[in-house]
């Protein structure tokens, strides 16, 4: 093409120079995600977090905590900006690799702009000074308790507590430094350093408790407990250090339940192999969450499930085993995407049901037959196990529907019926051994099950995992789901 009009040529040149200007200025900060089907805004592209060092100073539930989040990461792409997930706190400063960075909140992202762009494959050291606010609507993150705080971040609420790459696909090591007033006890995931007492009159009088994880962890599994707590120690199988965190006033009353953990760990180890972490224990909180949560090495329970007399003992025990089983399934082996949630909940429900079966209270076969009868309804309401429907807006835990619990345990039962108990047990053991401290998804499970079965199970498992309706149960031709009219 040849330009013939001077006016047109001038116009085109002006447009071209505008394009050039646009090309050198980075686009305005925007909220980003890594494309999770269920939580598109979670996680951020361009870097891999190696470690978080989180410092919190707690005074009371009536005011925000002061916090410093230090992130050690590595870029995996050239970055002009660094997106973190963060909301519900006020940021006072940010540094990238030792130099101040500008910061801006966009949606639920905190976008940092370092002075110079970062190339791919370099260390990234981020420091953010901020507050972390436990007040307001309780929909994940900090949980206020009768005597302090606990944490419940699953699935997408860690970034209500600290700036992070809030997706389970990016696991990292953690150090927690929690300063609390004298008289309160702080506990977090992992093992403690010795607490450091600061003199009254110092700027932050109180005690700083430090904990470190010895294994990588997903943001959703972080736990920090502050309260008038007793830390009860005992030893589990092969010297595993156990520590439970309970309201100090309830220590004696709860001992009967705490004493069950060593036997439960042994029971799980007989089925799937060594416990995967450096310690375990239950955190019993004076809170009404409506759920229990498998926070890594320290599972969170509501006090009422142990103290309300309405629950049968076998039921409470099986719930304890559910959270314990998650330490292998969900914590050590973390889902690659949130659509893989069935691998967490299906397995935890499986061992919960197996344990109840062993106690002679509720047979696995009866539970699975009942699940089979309801499975089509569950699929209609929540989607198939491996492609669940997104939660409704504002319903943060709405993803946790029956289809990913008993509906997914039913998939495991179908697999066992198909390949036999010996091959099924080998699948379970290999799964937690080969993907320990790692992430894995549904395709990985199908591949591993096929290997152990000695035949490609894709065609068998596909309708179980992704079908709108429930396939026939191998070995139980008489099982049926009610026809919908
Ligand atoms: Zn669970």
From TrEMBL:
Domain of life: Bacteria
Catalytic reactions of this protein: Release of an N-terminal amino acid, Xaa-|-Yaa- from a peptide, amide or arylamide. Xaa is preferably Ala, but may be most amino acids including Pro (slow action). When a terminal hydrophobic residue is followed by a prolyl residue, the two may be released as an intact Xaa-Pro dipeptide
Peptidase M1 membrane alanine aminopeptidase domain mapped to chain residues: 275-464
Record domain Aminopeptidase N-like N-terminal: where: 154-192
Signal sequence region: 1-22
Enzyme Commission no: 3.4.11.2
UniProt similarity note: Belongs to the peptidase M1 family.
Full protein name: Aminopeptidase N
Source species of the chain: Streptomyces antimicrobicus
